Amino acid sequence: MKLKKSWVLILMLGIMSAVLVACGGGDSTKEDASKSGKKTVNLMESAEIPSMDSKKGTDGVSFTAQNTVFEGLYYLDKEDQVQPGVAKEDPQINDDQTVYTIKLRDDAKWSNGTPVTANDFVYSWRKIVDPKTAAEYAVIFSGVVKNATKITAGEMKPEELGVKAIDDQTLEVTLEQPVPYFHSLLTFPTFYPQNEEYVEKQGADYAKDSDHMIYNGAFTMKGWTNTSKSWSYEKNSKYWNKGDIKLDKINLQVIKDPGSAVNLYTTGKLDRATLSGDYAKQKQSDADFTSSLDAFVYFLKFNQKLDGKATIFANENVRKAIATVINKETMVDTVLANGSEPINGLVPSKFTFNPVTKEDFRKENGDLITYDKAKAQEYWKKAKQELGQDKITIEFLGDDQEFSKKMAEYIQSELETNLDGLKINIKTVPYKSRLKLDETQQYELQLSRWGPDYQDPSTFLGVFETTSSYNRSSYSNPEYDKLLKEAATTLATKPEERWNVLLQAEKILIEQDTAIAPLYQNGVAALQNPKMTGFVTHLFGAPYSYKWIEIK
Questions:
Q1: How far apart are CA 550 and CA 552, in angstroms?
Q2: Is 383 exposed, middle or buried (0-12, 13-18, 19+ CB in 10 A)?
Q3: CA separation for the pair 235, 550 (Å, rounded)
Q4: β-sheet bridge partners, residue 165
Q5: Per the confidence metrics, is the pTM higher than 0.85?
């Protein structure tokens, strides 16, 4: 998610201003809905949507929005099981598990009435891997769909991608080699279809706002531009399964201050308000308080090279000092207080399991790096000697989400208090700006996160391969790369051997090299209207689904 899955994303936050409260669809919207007899809920989002184009989305906010209005071949149900969406049944797979033949339902339509066809997937996927598109998530096709790697490198044409429309209702996908998680990967937003005729007609205007899109999901989008702080979703009358959609409308507004979120909830202007810090502590005994652990993992990312020059984080002892000096237990208990749990590895708990023993990956691989202030100070002393510096200043990149600002302050305090001679300067920028600075690798230290794109340890570990487009920290280890390549190729049909190689890879990344500093596995605390049910969180792919929400 991320990649990203990270993924991610996570709603910990509150409203942006009194003006937004007035125009964000509060009481007046509810009154209008009540008079018309329509079923409406009011929800919040943590940040503005960076992109509604499935070729360009890279973050949890975008993925949740896209998941609400678009649908792929398959979707995740309430229990994260893969179900047919635009596809009418599970794929037919050849004996060597490299060719998937997928039949599409004949009642899947776009919101303008145009049928969703196999060519809509061919067109979308070819555009994603085309180097001209510069799609960040093209990497998810690499090594998976046949020829994707060479196409993204400019060595082959997009038309040579291993996907073709046999007819309007039959899609054939050819893989480079067997991919154990490919069925679940087809639920991910990057694999959504796009209607060629419509998209080409819109040109550069496609997906710039809600009026320049057509939709094939449970809802359509209204009142959104790429700077919107409020918008709505309306039931899609052309959706093939519209009979199971209970809501008529969902109002969304961006809320970054948790105090405002609580106020809007208690005054009936929100049906769900996410919480963190003091508000989460105060509301834990409330009857409408709820919390759950998701699969997003937060960590400190160390940029080892900036503008072509090695940074302080090229020094292993600097990385290890920072990774071991932060008290994660205190951090999740006092700063977040939302059910998050400290983590001492990259792959989260309750996410993937040994194919033979069913042991949780996180439990099986154990704690790879833990809080140890004395050891951290030893690492720091060695680092200063190796660098020949007694005073060190580091810029810490964060964004304008409330929890992010509080986390940055806590981490700053931990580092400056416990590592002698260290000065941390916090640089706070808007959420979308932080994503851009990450993309261009213009940072030194950063609070980052990743949410899984599919249910496999490689969705986390693959981020830090040398050639990954999401490895924006210049980390590189040939042994690590070799293990991940083996997991993706020669061991693809040997589940237990593959599992053991992935366990070993994580140990290299965290325990040996400390390429990142794992902090916590995210929890989501919220106040939720008891009359609202069906708000679904996912462990991988898009963080949330709204299609099952009911209001009674």
A1: 6
A2: buried
A3: 13
A4: 171
A5: no
